[in-house]
C-alpha cells in the first residue's frame, strides 16, 4: 500500500457512508475528506453519531452503505495488520491493561510492526523510552498502568501511538475525564506529533483552539464543515447545540496566525 501522501491531499475519504444498527439509521450519507497533516475535530451534540463515525474509520463498525478509503484504498480491502500499522486510536475509556506496566503498554505500539515471536531490539527499546520521555512519564515508567492517573493514562496511550508511528491518529473524546491542564496537554501533544488527527470533542473552545478544520454532525448527518472561524457561529450553536452563545475572538492567535473563535455561553435560555 502507499504510505506517503502529499500534504493536504485527502488521507481519508468517507464516501456516502451510512450505518444502521438495531434497525435504526445512525449515520446517514456521510461525505467527508480528512486532509493529510491536518488536525480535524468532530463536534456535535450527545447521540449525534460521533463515536459511530469514528468507529467506522477504525474499522470497528462496517458501514451499511458507502466506502471509506485510506490513501485511496478501501479500508475493508486492507489486511487488518496493515491498517493497524498506519492508524492509532486513543479512546475515552482506557481499556484495562491486565497489570501491564506503563512501559509494556507503550511497547504495545510496536505490535503491528513486529512479526509473531520477534524480540524487542535495542532500537525498539530506544523508541519506547523516547516516547515515554516525550509525554513526560519517565518517573512512572515501571508503574502499573492501572495505577496511573486519568491524565497519565491518556498520555501513556499517546506515547503508545508515538511508538506506533501512525499516519492517522483517531481520538474519541480522549480528554473528557481530564482536568483543564491535562485536556490542553493531551491535545497539544497530539498536535505536536505532526500526523493527521481526527478527534471528537465536547469542549468547543478547546476544539476551536486545536483544530485546523471542524466537522459538525447532528442526528447522523454532517451539517457544517470548515475552519473553526467558519463553523463556530452563533447561529450554528443555536441550531445544532441549542444554546445561546456569543462568539468573540480569543486573545491569542493560532500558530498559523489566524484568529481563534471563543465562545461564551449565556445561561437561563
Ligand atoms: N451498536 C449500536 N446499536 C444500537 N444503537 C447504537 C449503537 N451504537 C450507537 N448507537 C446509537 O447511535 C446514536 C449515536 O451514538 P454515538 O455514540 O455515535 O453518539 P455520540 O455523538 O458519540 O454521542 P455522545 O456525545 O453522547 O458520546 C445513539 O443514539 C446511540 O444510542
From TrEMBL:
What Pfam families does the annotation carry? ABC_tran
Q: Does the keyword ATP-binding apply?
A: yes
Name the Gene3D superfamilies on file: P-loop containing nucleotide triphosphate hydrolases (3.40.50.300)
Q: Which PROSITE patterns match?
A: ABC_TRANSPORTER_1, ABC_TRANSPORTER_2
**A GO molecular-function term, please?**
ATP hydrolysis activity
Q: Which residues form the signal peptide?
A: none
Q: Which spans are transmembrane here?
A: none
Among SUPFAM superfamilies, the record links this protein to: P-loop containing nucleoside triphosphate hydrolases
Q: Where is the ABC transporter domain?
A: 12-244
The yes or no answer to whether the keyword NADP is present is: no
Source domain of life: Bacteria
Entry keyword set: ATP-binding, Nucleotide-binding, Transport
Assigned protein family: Belongs to the ABC transporter superfamily.
This protein is called ABC cobalamin uptake system ATPase BtuD
- Give the organism, scientific name: Pseudoalteromonas espejiana
Q: Which gene does this sequence derive from?
A: btuD
Amino acid at each position: 500500500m502507499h504510505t506517503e501522501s502529499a500534504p493536504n491531499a485527502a488521507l481519508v475519504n468517507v464516501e456516502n457512508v451510512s450505518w444502521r444498527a438495531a434497525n435504526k439509521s445512525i449515520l446517514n450519507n456521510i461525505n467527508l475528506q480528512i486532509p493529510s497533516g491536518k488536525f480535524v475535530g468532530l463536534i456535535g451534540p450527545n447521540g449525534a453519531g460521533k463515536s459511530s463515525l469514528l468507529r467506522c474509520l477504525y474499522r470497528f463498525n462496517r458501514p451499511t452503505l458507502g466506502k471509506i478509503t485510506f490513501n485511496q484504498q478501501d479500508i475493508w480491502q486492507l489486511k487488518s495488520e496493515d491498517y493497524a500499522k498506519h492508524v492509532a486510536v486513543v479512546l475515552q475509556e482506557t481499556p484495562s491493561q491486565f497489570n501491564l506496566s506503563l512501559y509494556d503498554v507503550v511497547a504495545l505500539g510496536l505490535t503491528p510492526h513486529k512479526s509473531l515471536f520477534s524480540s524487542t531490539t535495542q532500537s525498539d527499546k530506544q523508541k519506547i523510552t523516547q516516547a515515554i520521555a516525550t509525554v513526560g512519564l519517565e518517573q512512572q515508567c515501571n508503574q502499573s498502568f492501572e495505577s496511573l492517573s486519568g491524565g497519565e493514562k491518556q498520555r501513556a496511550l499517546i506515547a503508545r501511538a508515538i511508538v506506533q508511528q501512525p499516519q492517522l491518529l483517531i481520538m474519541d473524546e480522549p480528554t473528557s475525564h481530564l482536568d483543564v491542564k491535562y485536556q490542553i496537554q493531551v491535545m497539544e501533544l497530539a498536535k505536536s506529533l505532526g500526523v493527521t488527527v481526527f478527534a471528537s470533542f465536547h469542549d468547543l473552545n478547546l476544539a476551536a483552539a486545536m483544530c485546523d478544520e471542524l466537522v459538525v454532525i447532528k442526528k447522523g448527518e454532517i451539517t457544517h464543515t470548515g475552519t473553526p472561524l467558519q463553523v463556530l457561529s452563533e447561529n450554528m450553536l443555536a441550531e445544532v447545540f441549542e444554546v445561546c452563545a456569543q462568539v468573540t475572538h480569543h486573545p491569542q492567535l493560532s500558530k498559523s496566525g489566524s484568529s481563534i473563535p471563543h465562545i461564551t455561553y449565556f445561561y437561563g435560555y
